[in-house]
Sequence to fold (336 residues):
Amino acid sequence: MEAGETLDLGVLGIQVQVRVSDETQLQYDVIGRPCGLLGQEHVHSYQRERFEVLSGAMKLVLGGSEHELGPGQVMEVPPGAAHRQLAAGVGVGQVRVTVTPPGRTLEFLRRLAELARDGRLMRNGLPRPLAGAALVREFADEGHATRPPAAVQQALAGMILTSAAALAAVKRTVGEAWGGASREYVFVDEWDVRAAPAAVFDALADARTYPQWWKPVYIDVDADGPPALHKESSQHFKGRLPYHLHTRTRVTELDRPRVVSGEVQGDLRGCGTWTVARTPDGTHVRFDWRVYADRPLLRALTPLLRPLLRYNHNWAIARARDGLEPYARSHPPGEG
Fold:
């Protein structure tokens, strides 16, 4: 940055006008009323600061003593001395600051201007956690706030940056999983039932019966009468995981007592097909379930927790295995 250029520090309440920037010193004018981060007590490791008030007033707290400076007054802060500089009086002030040697002070000021421009400073003039952690780590050789201790600041900053990096990695993993892996769930379940095929088919085709035998999975099913082609029903159900699902199903194929299919919309989107076949001992049941998870929580969990969600499905099907046979045996075909 060349002498004569101006940095706008936004919510920090000041503009910085660079006058001299060379290998021996940095000199700049601070115009405004500094606040937020700029008013915190801090220490410069190896630099000397000189403050000269050109207009208005400033308060310099040095070594526990307060000094209010007016136009023409000058005060220096030696390296390693804890100090604060605050606005004093009323209105806009202008203070000329000379830093010797310059170190990376200009880079630090430029970074503050960038944070202010990008909205990474809060309204009170303090940096947001991630931005603050980056400042602590990047400019530790220049100086630091006096509280908490420098070692604690470094440790906290490291924790914040590490956590942010881990979160970014998770987001990348999710993004890659969403881009490279299907969000579709495909399940195929088959088992035998010692009951008449027609009775088994009637139980499977009429979702109104599910709360009676598919417990505790199905909580409520609402339908206007028995199943028929193109008829719709609504379902409220849950699995082993702590969430409930709501869907609507439209019958797309009905071939009693062999096949019933439905198109599903809602928290899950896709299609399901029950196929029933006679066996010497009763009935063979096959369930083809091909769905997408449209509920926000499920969409977020899909790439990372697919095995857990498959476990949830398997648990629900096990409850169907437990309840279907006794229900079908006790309800002859055509009985509701």
Observations:
- The first strand starts at residue 6 and ends at 8.
- The radius of gyration is 35 Å.
